[in-house]
Amino acid sequence: MSAGQVTLYVASSVDGYIADDQGGVEWLDEFGQETGDEGIADDYEEFFDSIDCLVMGATTYEQVLSFGEWPYGDRPTYVFTHRELSRATDAVEFVAGDIDSLATELEETYEHIWLVGGAQLAREFLRTGHVDDLRLSLIPVLLGSGIQLFSTNDEPRRLQHLVTRAYRSGIVELHYEVDG
């Protein structure tokens, strides 16, 4: 089997923040699937159907848990953490250790991996060359401050444009291939 593909698929404010200063994402609520913009829901469903497993950091995991019912069903989910956390389902596995090695192991096991977030984990996956694809949903909001997806200390990375989609809600999804 060839190495699996890792997609970093994340929402960001137009000014580059994935969460507010307190780590909250309530600013995304008005742009949820209930906006009547079926294109977003259809595109997300198509993407999710292509996923074999999910990867996220502990803070993102706790954020997802706070939304209520676990949204990922029995899809294998790996949570990078050094803390003791409660398991949402039997499909959730907590992992710790060298991110580069663990990412390689996941790529050897799964065909398509969704890197859900957060920012620190995404940066480390990018730094170690484990992001093949970037799907960035720009939300038409300027937060002014918060948790940045990318850091000013990140190494330059070349992106190859694949697709841009604009939705009625004002969300623009940018899809790039990440060069080597």
Automatic annotation (TrEMBL):
Top-level taxon in the UniProt lineage: Archaea
SUPFAM superfamilies associated with the record: Dihydrofolate reductase-like
A Pfam short name: RibD_C
UniProt domain Bacterial bifunctional deaminase-reductase C-terminal: residue ranges: 6-171
Entry coiled-coil feature ranges: none
GO molecular-function term, one example from the UniProt record: 5-amino-6-(5-phosphoribosylamino)uracil reductase activity
GO biological process terms, semicolon-separated: riboflavin biosynthetic process
Record's protein name: Deaminase
